[in-house]
Amino acid sequence: MPISFETDSKSRNFINLLLVAAGFLLVSACVFSTGKEPDKNDVKAPSSPAASPSATTKSADSSKKEDKGDFVVRHLTVANSRYEEIDRKIRNEKLLEKAADDLNKALILPKDIYLQSKDCGEPNAQFDPETETITVCYELMEHFYQLYRSDGMKPEDADKKMFQAVRFAFLHEVGHALIFNYDLPVTGNEEDAADRCSSYINIEELGDEGVKNVLAAADAFHIESKQSSSTKRDLADEHLLQEQRFYNSLCMIYGSDAEKYQYFVTDGYLPKERAVRCPMEYQRAVDSWVNLLKPWRKDR
Ligand SMILES: [Zn+2]
């Protein structure tokens, strides 16, 4: 499923982002996936097992799974010449390869999962369970860039934010891929679970850089919600509304350190009524992911 970004893709300024593209997936290659969406970010090493009480009570280390696969990068031919340069940069800088390395260092896989970036004809990111492929579309990058520009952001800032949001999206897709390949239980909305997975990896594994990725995604959700009229909302879509994804993203960050992010509340971004429950909400998400991934994490 798409991250459900609507775009009217005019990309006059797209050339600008090519200049910054070098820094792209470097530290992270992650994709938002939904069973059909891409994102980018990387997974660093597993967090300390002590983080989760349930993780210690549940399975012993003997329950580690057998490693039968890797994240494997595939390069495709670009159909739209507009994306040739960014494609070349991604190859030359080995951005996807670096992301794959980070993921492979951290996770055991039952089979190979492919990572690719390409032009798709639509702004999207996806995980396709049939082909075990996470795809990040260049149109999604362009969409993010234009979204930030349309909100008045300067080209350099829009570039930076775009890469951050793509990393959040990439890790969302990694979330879908892990849910599918590990056969993880999901007792709620899988789109929301994938968002929480991305937030968890970003905040817990990538630190302040990861927080920026979540914030950039939250910004994108917020701008999109401002730009779409209520009649355009698709209430049947499996993704939560952009407003909800915005507040949930802020709640995860705030919940990770209420003192540090107190300004979310005092500046009016996050209602106090929601904020008081965010630390527990965040801890529950972290404990759940730590516990679920435990048999699949490589020991450092
Ligand atoms: Zn998704």
Radius of gyration over alpha carbons? Answer: 18 Å
Number of helices: 11
Helix content: 40-55%
Alpha-carbon distance between the two ends: 33 Å
Contiguous uncertain segments of 5+ residues: 1-60
Beta-strand percentage?
5-15%
Cofactors and ligands: zinc ion
Overall shape: it is globular
How would you sum up the major sheet? Answer: 4 strands, mixed
Estimated structural class: alpha/beta
How confident is the prediction overall: mean pLDDT?
A: 82
Total domain units: 1
Count of DSSP E strands? 4
Order of helices and strands: HHEHHEEEHHHHHHH
Strand order of the largest sheet: 1-2-4-3
Keywords:
alpha/beta, 300 residues, 11 helices, four-stranded mixed beta sheet, disordered N terminus
How would you characterize the overall build of this protein?
There is one protein chain. The chain has 300 residues and is an alpha/beta fold. The chain has one domain. Helix content is 50%, strand content 6%. The protein is built from 11 helices and 4 strands, in the order ααβααβββααααααα. The chain has helices spanning 14-20, 53-57, 84-92, 95-106, 138-150, 155-181, 190-227, 242-256, 263-266, 272-275, 278-293; strands at 71-73, 113-118, 125-128, 133-137. It has a 4-stranded mixed β-sheet with strand order 1-2-4-3. It is globular and about 45 Å long. The two termini are 33 Å apart. Residues 1-60 have low confidence and may be disordered. The structure holds zinc ion.
